[in-house]
Amino acid sequence: MKITVIAVGKIKEKFYTEALSEYSKRLSKYIKLDVIEVADEKTPDQASEREVAQILEKEAQRILAKLPSGAYVIPLAIEGKMLSSEGLSEKLAELGLQGDSHVAFIIGGSLGLADSVLEKADFKLSFSKMTFPHQLMRVILLEQVYRAMRIMRNEPYHK
């Protein structure tokens, strides 16, 4: 299975880069992982709705330009479906059995994702009704994909 993560913004904090590096290394045993960062737009203080929409659309154009052809698209969105770790494992296993061997997860920036990105979704995934920093969300996603791979193979993983 190949997993592509398309994420808005760069990771600057060392503790995030170290965690991402560790999970990327762990995942290399199970999948081919490709992480693509696209530039985020600066959001002015007190941005108007119009400015927010323009920023989201600029980021969306960058995301959509990097979306792999034929991939099963899963944007992370608050309004998406929440799954347990076992549920995510089942979902990824099911996709593999259906022949969807390339999955693209999309993580938006601080403003979220434009409708034009969400419309490309084959499945919308929510980790919580809470909002998380997009840098931390990248770590959480990789950890959960790693956990899903371990569950899929009946390998032990701390609970």
UniProtKB/TrEMBL annotation:
Known catalytic reactions: pseudouridine(1915) in 23S rRNA + S-adenosyl-L-methionine = N(3)-methylpseudouridine(1915) in 23S rRNA + S-adenosyl-L-homocysteine + H(+)
Group of enzyme by EC: transferase
Family from the record: Belongs to the RNA methyltransferase RlmH family.
Organism expressing this protein natively: Acidaminobacter hydrogenoformans DSM 2784
Residues where S-adenosyl-L-methionine binds: 76, 108, 127-132
Primary location: cytoplasm
Subcellular location(s) per record: Cytoplasm
Database matches in CDD domains: RlmH-like
NCBIfam families given in the database record: PRK00103.1-3 (NF000985), PRK00103.1-4 (NF000986), tRNA_RlmH_YbeA (TIGR00246)
Recorded GO CC terms: cytoplasm
Alphabetical keyword list: Cytoplasm, Methyltransferase, rRNA processing, S-adenosyl-L-methionine, Transferase
Subunit structure: Homodimer.
EC number: 2.1.1.177
A Pfam match: SPOUT_MTase
GO molecular-function terms, A-Z: rRNA (pseudouridine-N3-)-methyltransferase activity
Full protein name: Ribosomal RNA large subunit methyltransferase H
Function: Specifically methylates the pseudouridine at position 1915 (m3Psi1915) in 23S rRNA.
Gene giving rise to this polypeptide: rlmH
SUPFAM superfamilies in the record: alpha/beta knot
Coiled coil residues, start to end: none
